[in-house]
Write a structure and sequence with these properties.
2 domains, eight-stranded mixed sheet, six-stranded mixed sheet, globular
Length: about 500
């Protein structure tokens, strides 16, 4: 077998003011050419899983490009064109038997309604009718057009995402079967007009998505059913046809597919009220938290989560804490390259006065006046301890640690998705030494900080706001849940 393998992942946010360039992809992982296979063989990401399967069957691997831009606002058109063209150029390599692509499925890009569809159209034109199998993040936006352009789509099964390698194994396994002729891939989808906030949609806790996980795994034991995936698309990448899709891959068209979709969609819809987030105001969290003897108290500011596509530069909680009158120690991370440059010019031990944060996302407050001591600097490099980029290196750019009385701020030059405390730890900060610790992700913190005495999901403003009813919707066609409701399921065409 001669199989082309590539990856182009990014999760967008239409409510975010940030913009994404080629440097954002390069600051995470970016491989092409000969170092593609040697660098990713034995790794933890989707392509690593695919390589392990293809190695096992003695396939010849044709490397394309493999990159992950993380999360953010809109990808600039020049950036996408460069990435797409690099990938397509490597498809000019002679006859292929199949193509494996790892895509996120929720890219937002200038000049196109659907970047993944545009890419798949170009790939299909290049390779003809050979099987194409793609893997997608569980939060992908799946469309009928995407279904028509490939032979199978396989999604992550877990949220938080700790099965990225395994998803690559499953996708490549289907591709090998299709190329060898042992199965005839057939794929169908059904989509609910229902958006869910990720903080209430984990697959390890008692949620409706956990029930969907169990139902899909049971269905995959039936004859002819090869994969069943669920895609509650990220609500912050707003689309006219946003919702939650189920995708069935079978060996030929399955006789029970209509019944399967009816059951999966109906069961999820009936539990829709359980997706409404349970949130706490910052004032209540601080007052309750200070009464707890132990620490750290984890404050999840998911509305500014880089992993949701927000800018990561919110100083909202910093401002709130500075005016709270509390004297307990407080740790927060804020993106502000200008403040990093100012601190570097002054040096360790200097005192600086600055306007911190709220410069990209400036709709929910002005920059905060902050007077602080420069404690130290960090080059920004870290290694992901889990999630969709597990084991890969990344950077938050040049960073500085500032202290004002009981408050410590890690100020970084660039935003980067966080899985656990790896960004704090890389800067020499031990979160266990603080009473209150701000984290900026909607779900991973529950797993990463499960040992902490209390975790609060906060109701704060921002591009990744958990309460979907408070977002300024402009594109998503009504009716859809949770803005609208119905006793019977509302479907997308």
């Amino acid at each position: 077998m001669r199989i082309a393998v590539g990856a182009l992942l990014f999760e967008g946010n239409t409510f975010s003011l940030s913009r994404t360039t080629i440097q954002d992809f390069q600051s995470h992982y970016f491989f092409e050419g000969e170092d593609f296979i040697s660098s990713l063989r034995g790794g933890e990401i989707e392509v690593s899983g695919a390589i392990s399967v293809l190695d096992a069957v003695g396939a010849e691997i044709v490397p394309l490009i493999a990159t992950h831009g993380g999360c953010g606002g809109t990808v600039m058109r020049a950036c996408f064109d460069e990435l797409k063209n690099r990938l397509l150029a490597r498809l000019d390599c002679g006859a292929l038997d199949g193509v494996f692509l790892a895509l996120h499925g929720a890219m937002i890009c200038e000049g196109t309604e659907n970047a993944e569809v545009e890419l798949l159209e170009a790939v299909r034109e290049k390779v003809g009718s050979v099987p194409i199998v793609i893997t997608c993040d569980l939060h992908a936006h799946i469309t009928p057009k995407m279904i028509s352009l490939c032979d199978a789509i396989v999604g992550y099964e877990h949220y938080p995402h700790d099965d990225v390698f395994e998803t690559g194994v499953r996708g490549a396994g289907l591709l090998v079967k299709a190329v060898s002729g042992s199965v005839k891939l057939s794929m169908q989808m059904k989509k609910l007009a229902m958006l869910v906030t990720p903080t209430m949609a984990g697959t390890r806790a008692d949620t409706p998505m956990r029930e969907a996980y169990k139902a899909c795994r049971a269905l995959e034991s039936l004859p002819g059913i090869l994969a069943v995936s669920y895609f509650p698309s990220t609500p912050w990448a707003e689309r006219p046809d946003g919702g939650t899709a189920f995708v069935l891959v079978s060996d030929g068209r399955h006789a029970l597919q209509d019944l399967i979709f009816e059951r999966l969609c109906g069961d999820l819809w009936n539990e829709r009220a359980r997706f409404l987030p349970q949130l706490t105001t910052i004032d209540d969290a601080l007052q309750e938290g200070k009464k707890i003897d132990a620490g750290p108290i984890i404050l999840s500011e998911m509305s500014d989560a880089v992993g949701a596509g927000a800018a990561g530069d919110s100083a909202y909680l910093l401002q709130k804490y500075m005016t709270s009158g509390l004297t307990e120690s407080f740790l927060v991370q804020i993106v502000d390259a200008g403040v990093v440059d100012l601190a570097r010019a002054r040096g360790v031990g200097a005192h600086i006065d600055c306007q911190l944060g709220n410069k990209v996302e400036n709709r929910h407050g002005a920059p905060v006046s902050f007077s602080a001591e420069v404690l130290g600097f960090h080059d920004g490099a870290f290694i992901y301890s889990g999630g969709p980029m597990a084991g890969t290196s990344s950077t938050v750019g040049a960073a500085v640690v500032l202290r004002h009385k009981n408050i410590v701020v890690l100020v970084t030059s660039r935003p980067a998705y966080e899985y656990a405390d790896e960004q704090y730890a890389a800067a020499g900060i031990d979160v266990r030494g603080f009473k209150f610790v701000v984290v900026k992700n909607p779900m991973n913190y529950r797993q990463a900080y499960s040992w902490a005495p209390r975790l609060y999901a906060l109701d704060t403003p921002g591009a990744g706001r958990a309460d979907l009813t408070k977002l300024e919707w402009r594109q998503c066609v009504r009716p859809f849940y949770p803005l609208d409701d119905s006793v019977t399921p509302i479907y997308r065409d």
